[in-house]
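Because discrete structure vocabularies remain unfamiliar, we first show an illustrative case, written as a sequence plus integers encoding its fold.
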Amino acid sequence: MIDLSGKVAAVTGAAGGIGAEVARTLAKAGALVVLGDVQAERGEQVAAQIRGSGGQAKFVAHDTSVEDQWIAFIDTALDSFGGLDILVNNAGIEQTCFLENITVADIQKLLAVNVTGVLIGHKHAVRAMKPGGRAGKGGSIINLSSVAGLIGTPGLGVYSASKGAVRLLTKSAAVEFGRLGYGIRVNSIHPGLVETEMGEKLLNDFVSLAPHIYKVKNAF
């Protein structure tokens, strides 16, 4: 187990699934954890579980597409625990739809969380972590991309576009912060299908599209 004693971590989308497990794992390693999510009741429960297991955790209602809420989220880490060493950009939503049927509203909703939210998170985490910032010791930013950001899949065009954006944002941010001497690492993780509520929904949605995807046999 990595020793993160005294480190301060902030995790978005931490009310369930991967985010909740990341928050629990960081706390077990000794980190002081701020959890953010739009699902307040469930997020509070995860934070309470961490505290009940001897860890330190605080929940903040947090919509990652809203910049003011990002400011409050980062300030909570700084004000409550005295720093910010780790940011895990985990919050995300999925959409399964053939490209010919997508709507502008659906595109904007997904990109607001999966891309804009991650960009805003970099902005405010870096301002805190960089030399001269309120935390000022550098740190680590970990972005949840997806296998869908590496390969093409029918019905996942918008989702794949968003996760591909996260992958390339990660690379750009890593180079930028390195060149600026900020001491901030940036990495992306690319999970496959995970047994969570979101994973189950994605699987069910994809299964519903499967008859249309595979109805043409021996097309080539």
